[in-house]
Amino acid sequence: MSAPVIDIEGLTVEARLADRSQVILHELDLEVGQGEVIGVVGESGSGKTTLVRSLVGLLDKNVKVVDGSVSLHGNRVLAPGLDKTKAVRGREVGVVFQDSARSLDPLFKVKTQLKEVLAAHRGDLSRAEMTDRMTEVLRRMKVGDPARVLDSYPHHLSGGLAQRVAIALALVTGPRVVLADECTTALDVTTQAEVVALFRELVDDSQVALVFVTHNILLAADICDRVVVMYAGQAVETGPTGRVLRAPHHPYTTGLLESVPGWGGADTFQGIPGSAPRVSTDTVGCRFADRCPYAAADCRAADVPWSIAPDAGGYRCLHPLALAGRSEPC
Fold first, then answer.
1. Distance between CA 8 and CA 312 in Å, rounded?
2. Which of 38, 121, 184, 322 lies at a CB distance of 3.0 to 4.6 Å from 192, suitable for a disulfide?
């Protein structure tokens, strides 16, 4: 892979609570190349949204980056005591949030909102150029009547069309990086598939780097070149999407797959028992140990190191499933 567009090294983010510090992200490493789609998957509370909000400087006041760094095109934009994300947010990095209602102001027409984004980040464009760009981005989103949509208020649009407009808001400035944070969750299955196809076409045509955050591992299978499986603030497995889904190394990844109805032709599916732990600065051992059917004494004795997989991915497990050839709990 050529020089990464996004380079995250050891990113650690903590939230200051009344009586302790809670670790939300822990030593996360991730590179995203030009024209690459990286899927970030995991349960609610795994740190996916905090990752997105960190990259664009939208963390809550009690949440801080305490270690590691984020670089964009080789320039460091985020580290402890350093935050240059405002300079790249909007123009270099576009964000699509989970619910279009969070992105669209119900009091203003679509054209007003798109113009506001362009005026803030692309002041070099004339009014005519702005209109052309707004129309063009809506056409790329497969909007059949851009003029009508531009003159509409958000509540005049269907859920799927409103989400396409929200995506257009993130794309209208021509960013090199797009962060899609659970942006298909509120859509029906058919519209989800259409939005995923639009993202794939965008990446192929424009060579943007796309970070696609989802709890739906099936969607990740459809669009992503590589996946990062997160649990309790840590990356527990990474690798090419096909390999991770066919032969996962980490038991948590297996649990996510087994919770999908009909995955692999199975007649039944099962959830992962228990819930993710709240991680503090003194938490030790594998964070999945209490829910893992393969956990042994060594899993709880010390923090689990990161291991490199043969396909250049990696995993955080002392007893990796695929490498051990194990199909039943020990």
1. 17
2. 184
The predicted model gives 24-28 an average pLDDT of 96
What is the number of other CB atoms lying within 10 angstroms of the CB of residue 177? 21
Domain presence at residue 318: yes
Count of CB atoms situated within 10 Å of the CB of 245 = 21
Beta carbons within 8 Å of 282's beta carbon, 6+ residues apart:
none
DSSP 155: G
Residue 319, in any domain of the structure: yes
Helix (H, G, I), strand (E, B) or coil at 38: strand
pLDDT band, very low/low/confident/very high, at 325 (cuts 50, 70, 90): low
Rounded Cα distance between 126 and 271, Å, is 54
Residue 323 sits in which domain range?
243-330
Residue 226 binned pLDDT confidence (cut-offs 50, 70, 90): very high
Number of domains present in the structure of the chain: 1
> Quick one: pLDDT at residue 326?
57
Overall average pLDDT of the 254-280 stretch: 82
Q: What angle do CA 12, 13, 16 make, to 5 degrees?
A: 140
Burial class (CB in 10 A: 0-12, 13-18, 19+), 234: buried
Specify if 48 maps to a domain.
no
Residue 134 lies in a domain: no
Residue 137 has pLDDT above 60, yes or no: yes
Residue 145, amino acid:
D
